Amino acid sequence: MNASILKFLRANGEQLDADISQALDIPMAQLKTLVAQLSASGDVICCKVTRFIEGRKIEGISCRLSCDLPAPARGRKPGVKKDPNADLKYPE
User: Fold this and answer.
1) Is the pLDDT of residue 1 over 70?
2) Could you tell me which of 32, 34, 37 has the C-alpha nearest to residue 48?
3) What is the pLDDT of residue 37?
4) Are 7 and 44 in contact (CB under 8 A)?
5) What pLDDT was estimated at residue 83?
6) Left (φ > 0), alpha (ψ -120 to 50) or beta: where does 13 sit?
7) Cross-strand bridge partners of residue 39
């Protein structure tokens, strides 16, 4: 059963426990024990989340593979700004 959870997370990325339970047709209580085992072994990273979808509060456990890092955000990254006068300065 653990292999099917890992396979599902590999194919679909980060998912809520309710979505995993529904997709794999596993009772929620059994899924929570399986995810706890996977988390203890280091295969899966889990955290408690609260999401608001269409005004409804949904609390659950978000799970992802431990080796699967989220993609970096697009766009400019914060950092040191280049001094516009840096090219005009000459070392003495």
Assistant:
1) yes
2) 32
3) 93
4) no
5) 63
6) left
7) none
